[in-house]
Amino acid sequence: MNRPVGFSVLLFLAVFLLVVSSVKPAFSSDSSTVPNGYLNAVYEEWEISDDETMGVVGLGVHHNFSDCFSLGVGSWMAVKGERGGFITLGVDGNLCLPITERIAFESGVFIGAGGGRGGYTLSGGGLMLRPHAQLTYDTGSFGKLSAGVSYVRFPNGGSIESTQPYISFSLPFYAYMENGWTDGHSESTAQKRERGSRSNSLAAVVRDLHAASGAETVNGAAQRDFTLLGIEWRSYFNDSWYAKLETEGAAGGNSRGYMQILVGGGAQVPVAGNLFVNADASVGGGGGGNVDTGGGLLLDASAGIGYYLASGLFAGLSGAYITAPDGTFEATSLALKLGYRSGGSPANNDNGISRFSEKPSNMRLRLVHQIYYKASDLWRTHQADMNVENIGIQIDGFLDRNWYLTGQGLAAYGGDAGAYMTGLLGLGVRKNIVGKAFVNAEGLVGAAGGGGLATGGGLVWQGNVGLGYDLHPSLSALATVGRIDAFDGDFKADVFGLSLAYNFNSFLLH
Question: What are the distances in angstroms from CA 84 to CA 31, 106, 140?
Fold first, then answer.
């Protein structure tokens, strides 16, 4: 099953380029639309010791706040070497300086956290800094190609410090976004309907992985079955074909700390009435939890059946096969999905898909900082008296004026807990109280592990309450207190959080 890792890296990049190249027409409905964001893929190799390098891929999405400044979120993951499961999450800022009509100089910095497959000595507390500089060539309709130099460091006690060249590809797109939560819109309803006409779906996923007989842990023991919990997002090019992004973490079994991020594409075909079938293929990175994914590259193929329960609301059952080409990990899986699909032009809304709304949804993107305080003597396997500091992002989609669905991804950057990550889903409420002040409450459940935190099988819950203030129609600050506990582990912590939120309108949920 072992294959040349060079082939694995090329396959990963090829599939990603095919997917994002297909996405462009789904984001822009006419050639006069000015892009306001871009998808980005980067490959580089870090020198992590005198005799070891690690090939990593960075994936991200950026929003252009001006012609020369963009800000986005992204993830870095190992795909080559011996560190499968090394993953970081964070935010990425970028500045550009045009040189000619097609050539520009760009620079920026990624600030994030994470780790894996190397313990504290590799990523330290988990904080990651990556400044970069590059020359970019705009090919026009085929996106932008770049080559540059980056410097990567894990300054909070980590051993990684590396300077290296890299290559990248970015694909501009247009997606309707409007600053703030106002009722007035700068575009006509017809323009918004046209630009927001693509269909999207978002589903919660519970997946049972059944390891093949030859699959082993990194310690050489037989790999045991485990359960994943996560989300799957799809963006449809037309009535059938779609691109997908899937991220899941271990929430049951003995592989806590395992995480995977997959991108791919597939097709969905109606069968009868509200019944449909689908099939897709994906590629990505993952590992951790002593699962032997080699360098981290994962290949996945799945097929399933689904049924629209109500307008837009669907349930699905799928089977999949996943393998790590340069590791021993190989498994089949059975997944249950519950999600919501919406959007698309009214003429194409079949099979229970919700019709397009003329009013965009209120949404909120939060940059989050949380500190965990010990609430159990056995909450960590080491450094039990140290607090754990985390950074990450949280996105909220409002169902009405007050209630919202939420998703949160955090990674440790302090407290000697590098490699700890958590991904949670939940429901929240935001209520104005007086003037620009508001209260906020939410409950979440999901997967967490790594960094020596005793999360048992990986399934955790978290509750937060807080007080916020609108600094600007599009900017809010929020302070929260809460609790996070493992369902079947000794991990218990009190939580204090601070977040800065960008408030905007979008058709993402329509």
Answer: 41, 30, 35
- So where are the chain's domains? 34-174, 197-348, 361-506
> Do residues 319 and 337 make contact, with C-beta atoms less than 8 angstroms apart?
no
Q: What is the DSSP letter of 194?
A: H
User: Got the DSSP string for 109-128?
Assistant: EEEEEEE-SSHHHHHTT-EE
Q: Is 222 exposed, middle or buried (0-12, 13-18, 19+ CB in 10 A)?
A: exposed
Alpha carbon distance 416, 10 (integer Å)? 35
Enter the pTM of the model.
0.85
Span 43-100, pLDDT tens digits: 999 999 889 999 999 999 898 988 889 999 999 999 999 898 899 999 999 999 999 9
Are the beta carbons of 82 and 65 closer than 8 angstroms? no
Residue 282: partners with Cβ closer than 8 Å, 6 or more residues away:
15, 244, 246, 262, 263, 264, 265, 299, 300, 301, 302
CATH match of 34-174 with 2.40.160.20: yes
CATH topology of domain 361-506: Porin (2.40.160)
Report the topology of domain 197-348: Porin (2.40.160)
What letter would DSSP give residue 33? Answer: P
